[in-house]
Write a structure and sequence with these properties.
The protein is an alpha+beta fold and 242 residues long. Helices cover 33% and strands 12% of the residues. The protein binds iron/sulfur cluster and FE2/S2 (inorganic) cluster (FES).
């Protein structure tokens, strides 16, 4: 495939950014989008130019580090996929692809396509710790958990903290992320003693640069782990009950 990439270049949060245009040719449709950026960076280095800065770690869709807005969609056009799991076969030969960082007031650009997502960590931090006895692991069946609660908690725990939901939301809201964290802890008996975490986490979210939720649903549409909007309903119920 031969592709044209329009990539956001920005030295730091204060510097003005602009798109750079790069041609890259003869790439396999089977490589991932991050592999493509690796190849581009090799090309740039060979030409004595600055490589494009971008985040990645596992490249298996589990760590949440990667995150690019590709042609206007966080994580690109493939459904339920992270950027690292997106392959060039989702595009066509000769296509021009626009690549940007997450755009949100809460995520300042560090450089090029890398943003600071520390605000999500501060929401989790506000939730505090879980009280749990230390020592050897208790017998697994000593705390009965209804199957539907176990499954709902497990589904919510699939959130990888990538921030695509924030980037997609017209309000820059982190509600789906916060809801996933609250739902996964508050639905299990082990997490209930500290159910008040929901109050602190929502307060932290509101105090940071995130917007409010107006139920547009863009968050769940781009979420690589398909966290449903019903997680936000769980969060709201938990918040009202506290
Ligand atoms: S809810 Fe989905 S989109 Fe948002 S941080 Fe978690 S995995 Fe990413
Ligand atoms: S690099 Fe880990 S989820 Fe993409």
């Amino acid at each position: 495939m031969n592709l044209t990439l329009r990539i956001w270049r920005q030295q730091n949060a204060e510097a003005p950014g602009e798109f750079g245009t790069y041609e890259i040719g003869d790439v396999s449709p089977d490589i991932s989008f991050l592999d493509l950026l690796d190849l581009l960076n090799e090309q740039l280095l060979q030409n004595g130019e600055q490589p494009v800065a971008f985040d990645s770690d596992c490249r298996e869709g589990i760590c949440g580090m990667c995150g690019l807005v590709i042609d206007g969609i966080p994580h690109g056009p493939a459904e339920a996929s992270t950027t690292c799991q997106l392959h060039l076969r989702s595009f066509h030969n000769g296509q021009t692809i626009t690549v940007e960082p997450w755009r949100s007031a809460a995520f300042p650009v560090i450089r090029d396509l890398i943003v600071d997502r520390g605000a999500l960590d501060r929401i989790v931090q506000a939730g505090g710790y879980i009280t749990a006895p230390t020592g050897s692991a208790p017998e697994a069946n000593s705390i009965p958990v209804p199957k539907k609660d176990a499954e709902a908690a497990f589904d919510a725990a699939a959130c990888i903290g990538c921030g695509a939901c924030v980037a997609a939301c017209p309000n820059g809201s982190a509600m789906l992320f916060t809801a996933a964290k609250v739902a996964h802890l508050n639905r299990l008996p082990q997490g209930r003693p500290e159910r008040d975490r929901v109050v602190r986490m929502v307060a932290a979210q509101d105090a940071l640069d995130f917007g409010g939720c107006s139920n547009t649903g863009q968050c769940t549409a781009v979420c690589p782990k398909e966290i449903p909007l019903s997680a936000i309903a769980t969060l709201n119920r938990e918040l009202l009950s506290r």
